[in-house]
Every structure is written in structure tokens, then in C-alpha cells.
Amino acid sequence: MVIGVISDTHGNLEGWERAWDLGLGEADVIFHCGDVLYHGPKFTPAKAYAPRDLAAALNACSRPVLIARGNADSDVDQVVLDMPIQQPQVLAVLDGMRIVAAHGHVMGPAELLALADRWRLDFVLTGHTHAPVIEKVGRTYHLNPGSVTYPLAKEPQLQVPTFGLIRDGGPEVVDLGTGRALLHG
Predict the structure, then answer these.
(1) pLDDT for the residue 140
(2) For the chain, domain boundaries
(3) Alpha-carbon gap, residue 55 to 137, rounded angstroms
């Protein structure tokens, strides 16, 4: 099973399309960790800002897309999306893997990882920081795929647009520019 993980698209259709071509298109299911359509007041709209077109692409997606509500997602976004924006988390069991996805602004990774043993989670997926992370805490991987639109990592090598994949139970963060995995679990 291949699981796609994307976050903080902020209306960037080109970022979604590039991630699709580099691996999301292989996914059996895709988690979006929030901030789907709107860029918010903090950012200038990206060059590829096309929220209506991104909504159409998500609606036409041939794979299930599970969305956790981000701090820039609003009720009006649900009007143009055919799939529910869930809050504050999405909980799924896929192929025996227990996965929680959240944006990370209501409950952060540390709080979610504190619940990991009780919930027997294999993966905690978050966004919000726009900085990719793969860490293993006990039996649980934390994966933040970064952002395809506004990368904000402190490390220079991670200051690029990214998304995530989980293949054969192992997470990776993929560079949107090169298609190479930057981080592995």
C-alpha cells in the first residue's frame, strides 16, 4: 500500500500536480493535513494560486482524499470541495496501519504522540509548520510532509517544496523539484 501525504497547499494547483506526478498518483489513499485552498493573511498568494482549480482537481482525484482541517481552512472551502474537511483529526485504519492526521495547530505533534501508545498509532501526520519532519517515537512515526507552496524549514537542504509518501510502512519526504527523497524513516 502507498499512502500520500500533503499539507499546506494554500491553493497551489501546480504544487498538487507536481506532487501527483512524483508519487501521489501512485497512492491508494491521500491524506491532506490542512490549509488546502486559502493562502491566509501571512503569505502573498503563490504564483500558481488557483484555489478554484485546485478544488476541482481534488474533486476529480481518482484516489480517496482525507482532509484534516487547518487554521486557514474555512466553512466556505467546504462549499467547493466534494470530500469532508474533518476536524480536528482524521483517524483511519488502512491495511492494518493506524493513522491519525491533523493540521497541528489545535493539537501539536507532541500532544498527538503522547496519545500514540494508547491509540496504538503507527503514524501521526501533521502539517502547519511548513517544515518536513520524520521522527520515530516508540512504535510511532511522526511525518510532517512540509509544504508544496511555502517551505519554511530552518535547515537549508529542506527549504524546498515537499510532500510525503508512506511505502511498505516506511515514510519519506520528497523534494518537489528533484523527485528525490530528502528524509527517510
Answers:
(1) 98
(2) 2-184
(3) 34
Cell of 94: 488502512
pLDDT less than 50: residues of the chain: none
Instruction: Give the pLDDT confidence score for residue 1 in this predicted structure.
Output: 96
How many whole angstroms separate alpha carbon 103 and alpha carbon 129?
9
Residue 134, C-beta contacts closer than 8 angstroms, at least 6 positions apart:
141, 142, 143, 171, 172, 173, 183, 184, 185
Closest CA to 172 of 22, 35, 63: 22
Q: Is 148 helix (H, G, I), strand (E, B) or coil?
A: coil
User: Helix crossing, 13-22 with 51-59: angle to 10°?
Assistant: 40
CATH architecture of 2-184: 4-Layer Sandwich (3.60)
pLDDT in tens, 47-88: 999 999 999 999 999 999 999 999 999 999 999 999 999 999
Model confidence, pTM: 0.97
Question: How far is residue 111's CA from residue 109's CA, in Å, rounded to a whole number?
Answer: 5
Question: Grid coordinates in use for 59?
Answer: 474533486
Report the alpha-carbon distance of residue 70 to residue 104 in Å, rounded: 8
